[in-house]
Design brief:
Outer membrane lipoprotein wza fold like; wza like fold; 3 domains; 6-stranded mixed sheet; 8 helices
C-alpha cells in the first residue's frame, strides 16, 4: 500500500510540474497575442497623427497646441492678402523652412504659435508688411510616441506630445492587468540613459508616484508579478499573485486559497520548485508544525507549486488526468489587502 502511495505521489508531482509549465505558457501566449493585437490596432488608428494631414484628423488631442515642430513636419502658411507668403513648407533635417522674401527660418523645437509670432515679427521688422495677418498650421506631422509594454490592458505605442504623469500614461494603455507587479521601469529615449525603477502599487497611489513624469520617446514597462500555484486539497485551488511586497509564504498561500479542505492531509505538504537552470526540486514542508509554531515558515518563489495532499486513501484513488486538467485550467487570483 505504501509503495503504491509513493509511486502515485511521484506521478502526481511530475504531472503538476508539467501542468504549471502549461499554465505559464498559456498566459505568456495570451499576453503576446494581446500585445500584438493592440500594437496592430494602434498603427491603424487615424487619430494617432503619424504623417496625417490635419483635415483627416478625427480628433485633436488636448495638448496638440504644445507640440514642438521637428524635421519632416509640413506647415501651411497663409498671410492675408499677400500671395507671396502662401504655400506649404517642409521642415528640413536641420529644422529649417525656407520662406520667400524672409529667407531661412529655424523652427525646430518651437510650437506653431511661437513660429507664427516669429514670422509676423520678421515681416514687421523687415518693413515687408505693415500689419501682417499670419495664419500657420500643421498639415503633416510625426507624432512623438511613448511605448507601453508589459502588464497593461493594451500594450503598444501612444502619441505623447508633452511629458505626462505616469498614472495617465498607464491609464492610456488600458490600466494594469491582474498579473501586474509593483515595479514600473521607465527607459529614456536617448541611448545610454539609465532606466528609472518606480514602485507602483495598484492599491495606493502615493504623491511620489503621481508626480513621476513620462517623456516623449520613453519606454514604460510594467513588470509582471510573481505567481504561486496552490493545488490539491484546498478550498480554492489556483494561481495567486504575490503580494504588494513581492513575497508570499506557505501559510499566506494556503490562506489565500481559503484554507485546506476537510479531506486534506496537513501533516506534510509538498513544494515543487523550478530552478533558474531548469531543474526541478521537490521539498517536503512540515505544514502542521508550521501552523503550531514548531517550524519556520517557508518563503515561496514565483512559479512555485504548493501541493496539499488528501488522505492516503484519497491520494491513491486520485485520477492523474483529473489533477492535470485542474492544474491546466487553474484560475489566477489577485490579492488586494
Amino acid at each position: 500500500m505504501i509503495c503504491r502511495y509513493f509511486r502515485a505521489s511521484l506521478v502526481t508531482f511530475a504531472l503538476l510540474v508539467v501542468a504549471a509549465e502549461s499554465v505559464i505558457a498559456q498566459i505568456d501566449m495570451q499576453q503576446r497575442v494581446a500585445s500584438q493585437s493592440a500594437i496592430t490596432a494602434n498603427r491603424s488608428r487615424p487619430d494617432l497623427g503619424v504623417g496625417v494631414r490635419s483635415s483627416g484628423l478625427a480628433t485633436v488631442p488636448s495638448d496638440f497646441s504644445q507640440l514642438k515642430l521637428a524635421p519632416g513636419f509640413l506647415l501651411g502658411l497663409n498671410v492675408l492678402d499677400d500671395p507671396d507668403f502662401v504655400g506649404d513648407f517642409r521642415v528640413d533635417e536641420d529644422g529649417n523652412i525656407a520662406v520667400p522674401v524672409i529667407g531661412t527660418l529655424h523652427v525646430a523645437g518651437e510650437t506653431v504659435a511661437e513660429t507664427r509670432v516669429k514670422i509676423k515679427r520678421m515681416l514687421l521688422e523687415g518693413k515687408i508688411l505693415k500689419d501682417p495677418q499670419v495664419d500657420l498650421s500643421i498639415l503633416e506631422y510625426l507624432a512623438p510616441e511613448v511605448t507601453v509594454i508589459g502588464e497593461v490592458g493594451s500594450p503598444g505605442k501612444y502619441p505623447l506630445f508633452i511629458p505626462r504623469k505616469l498614472v495617465d500614461v498607464i491609464a492610456l494603455a488600458g490600466g494594469l492587468t491582474i498579473l501586474a507587479g509593483n515595479e514600473v521601469v521607465i527607459t529614456g529615449g536617448n541611448a545610454g540613459t539609465q532606466p528609472d525603477i518606480i514602485h507602483y502599487s495598484k492599491a495606493t497611489n502615493p504623491k511620489a508616484v503621481e508626480d513621476v513624469l513620462v517623456h516623449p520617446g520613453d519606454i514604460v514597462q510594467v513588470k509582471r508579478a510573481g505567481i504561486v500555484y496552490v493545488l490539491g486539497a484546498v478550498t480554492r485551488p489556483g494561481g495567486y499573485v504575490m503580494q504588494e511586497e513581492g513575497t508570499l509564504n506557505v501559510l499566506q498561500a494556503v490562506s489565500l486559497a481559503n484554507g485546506t479542505s476537510i479531506t486534506a492531509s496537513t501533516s506534510t505538504t509538498y513544494l515543487i520548485r523550478k530552478n533558474e537552470d531548469g531543474s526541478v526540486v521537490y521539498i517536503s514542508v512540515p505544514f502542521k508544525k508550521i501552523t503550531q509554531g514548531k517550524a519556520a515558515n517557508v518563503t515561496l518563489h514565483a512559479t512555485d507549486i504548493l501541493y496539499v495532499p488528501s488522505s492516503m486513501l484519497k491520494a491513491i484513488l486520485t485520477n492523474s488526468q483529473s489533477v492535470l486538467s485542474a492544474a491546466a485550467s487553474a484560475t489566477i487570483y489577485s490579492y488586494h489587502p
